[in-house]
């Protein structure tokens, strides 16, 4: 993705907490999305951050620091079904298309 | 409404053939996007429409690619003279006045 960096792979244990980081280019930044994508399926929306801080939604939370060009997705109480790719996507000005990172493939092991 | 529909789900074609994919967005969504995704990569933007107007095209969209959205509803993506490098998942997404994209299940193209 265009100036969007996230780790390629992560492994975590069932029941644990995992944090997936994403850094992005700050110029022209309007918001940050996280999507989940299971193998062979479409990406599905997880969260959207436009202001600094933490947004919590059940087991998933997302954090944004606009000044640092940094976001993370926090997954708690990991379940096997959370094994998927997690895509960070940057929103630019107006209706410009989302730019996606390459995704982080998370494997949850027993 | 059943979300964003894409057809076909899978397409195998011989190199040099033309292929066309269809996307039916959520009916009240006025913006429609095409992305391409290869294994281990995130979706890469190809083109997008607001109603029937094609507003932006990526440099990835060579002259062999063309997209239309004739009545501001469904869209088609055509690839002419397919090459092996065109093998990918082609994803369509739509959005309305909100900010989130809803993706279709994609069309997986294999060029042999």
What layout of secondary structure does this protein have?
The complex is a heterodimer of chains A (110) and B (112).
Chain A: E1 9-13, E2 18-23, E3 31-37, E4 44-49, E5 53-57, E6 60-65, E7 70-75, E8 84-91, E9 99-100, E10 104-109
Chain B: E1 5-7, E2 10-13, E3 19-24, E4 31-37, E5 44-50, E6 53-57, E7 65-68, E8 75-79, E9 88-95, E10 102-103, E11 107-111
Parallel strand pairs in B: 2-11
Antiparallel strand pairs in B: 1-3, 3-8, 4-5, 4-9, 5-6, 7-8, 9-10, 9-11
Unreliable segments of 5+ consecutive residues of chain A: none
Total of helices of chain B: 0
Anisotropy-based shape of chain B: globular
Mean pLDDT of chain A: 94
Instruction: Indicate the proportion of strand residues of chain B.
Output: over 45%
Radius of gyration of chain A: 13 Å
Residues in helix, % of chain A: under 10%
Major beta-sheet overview of chain B: 7 strands, mixed
Descriptive notes:
- The complex is a heterodimer of chains A (110) and B (112).
- In chain A, strands 1, 3, 4, 8, 9 and 10 form a six-stranded mixed β-sheet that branches. In chain A, strands 2-7-6-5 form a four-stranded antiparallel β-sheet, with no helix packed on it.
- Chain A is built from no helices and ten strands.
- By secondary structure, chain A is mainly beta.
- Chain A starts with 8 loop residues before the first strand and ends with a strand.
- Chain A has strands spanning 9-13, 18-23, 31-37, 44-49, 53-57, 60-65, 70-75, 84-91, 99-100, 104-109.
- Chain A is globular and about 40 Å long.
- Chain B is mainly β.
- Helix content of chain B is 0%, strand content 50%.
- Chain B contains no helices and eleven strands.
- Chain B has strands at 5-7, 10-13, 19-24, 31-37, 44-50, 53-57, 65-68, 75-79, 88-95, 102-103, 107-111.
- In chain B, strand 9 (88-95) and strand 10 (102-103) form a beta hairpin.
- Chain B is globular, with a radius of gyration of 13 Å.
- Chain B starts with a strand and ends with a strand.
- The interface between A and B is medium-sized, with 25 and 24 residues.
């Amino acid at each position: 993705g265009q100036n969007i960096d996230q780790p390629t792979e992560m492994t975590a244990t069932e029941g644990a907490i995992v944090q997936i980081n994403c850094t992005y280019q700050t110029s022209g930044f309007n918001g940050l999305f996280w999507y989940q994508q299971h193998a062979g399926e479409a990406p599905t929306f997880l969260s959207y951050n436009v202001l600094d801080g933490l947004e919590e939604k059940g087991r998933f939370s997302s954090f944004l620091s606009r000044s640092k060009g940094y976001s993370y997705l926090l997954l708690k109480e990991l379940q096997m079904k959370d094994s998927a790719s997690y895509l960070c996507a940057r929103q630019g000005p107006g209706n410009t298309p989302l730019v996606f990172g390459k995704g982080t493939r998370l494997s949850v092991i027993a | 409404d059943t979300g964003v529909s894409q057809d076909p789900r899978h397409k195998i074609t011989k190199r040099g053939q033309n292929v066309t994919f269809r996307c039916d967005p959520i009916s009240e969504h006025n913006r429609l996007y095409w992305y391409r995704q290869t294994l281990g990569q995130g979706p890469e933007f190809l083109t997008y429409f607001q109603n029937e107007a094609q507003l932006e095209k990526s440099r990835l969209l060579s002259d062999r690619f063309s997209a239309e959205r004739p009545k501001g509803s469904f869209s088609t993506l055509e690839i002419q003279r397919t090459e092996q490098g065109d093998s990918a998942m082609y994803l369509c997404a739509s959005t309305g006045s909100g900010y989130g994209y809803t993706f279709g299940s994609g069309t997986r193209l294999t060029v042999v």
